[in-house]
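Students often ask why we bother encoding 3D structure as a string. The short answer is that it lets us treat folding as translation between two languages. Here is a chain of 84 residues written in the first language.
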Amino acid sequence: MFKNYKVGFDIWGALLFLIIMIPNFIWFAVPAPNDILRTDSITQILDTVASVCQVLMIVLLCILKNKDQEKIKFSRWIIAVIIC
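And here it is in the second language, the structure alphabet:
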């Protein structure tokens, strides 16, 4: 399963992570006045497991590179995704 991947830093993976995180950065800078997401959780174990999985996903996104990966070509679909 992992034989087509090599370990190395992927700048596109890090950039993708930062793009995905833009709404979170905005929310952190300008929080809502009555933020219900900052209350204590009743499912702490599930939240901890989810946080660990999120960190693992980001780490793998940044360090695993596909050996057979082609260069990114800017098609109309890629441009539409960037606009959205």
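Translate back mentally: Residues 74 and 80 are 10 Å apart (CA to CA). Keep this in mind for the problem set.
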